[in-house]
Amino acid sequence: EPEVTQTPSHQVTQMGQEVILRCVPISNHLYFYWYRQILGQKVEFLVSFYNNEISEKSEIFDDQFSVERPDGSNFTLKIRSTKLEDSAMYFCASSEEGQGGQPQHFGDGTRLSIL
Amino acid sequence: AQSVAQPEDQVNVAEGNPLTVKCTYSVSGNPYLFWYVQYPNRGLQFLLKYITGDNLVKGSYGFEAEFNKSQTSFHLKKPSALVSDSALYFCAVRDPSGNTPLVFGKGTRLSVIA
Fold it and tell me: Does pLDDT of B9 surpass 70?
């Protein structure tokens, strides 16, 4: 069964540095998402992306964050000037369609640790 | 605004016994409801969804969930629990209008004891 793949599985970065988290969505999916899960807390929506532009973003997704689909397969999340509170699991998800009934399929996540 | 409540942080059940993981929701209009499971160091795996139709929906690994509109609930159930069902379970709701994000509950940790 096709999967969403994320790299790296664990990223350790010094505070203030930039990180790029990478995702390869399922190949025929058109809608892409990033969520994060701070340790012990709920999964929170960050941003959705369709047709090379952001569809919706949460209040968490401020100017520090950006997303990009640099080629036909990758979908990246960039975090500039990282802060301690950015430490979390970041999950990429994709869905075939954007309609509400379509399930989103998640990758295994990238654990981001900011020191 | 949409919201999901999972009132139990932890559910313990003996292997072979039925299990229930509770979820209630708040949304304007008709909700789209989902259950996901998360195993250690893994992402969220889709279990089942309710969109419309029969209130009892069946999903992966023998799980099912019952949509109850009057109680605004969508409890996850399984008739006979397995040790391998031990994991973190998330209920989620989505506004059916357009490409809207999933809103998750805080999760319920299920422990099935042999």
Answer: yes
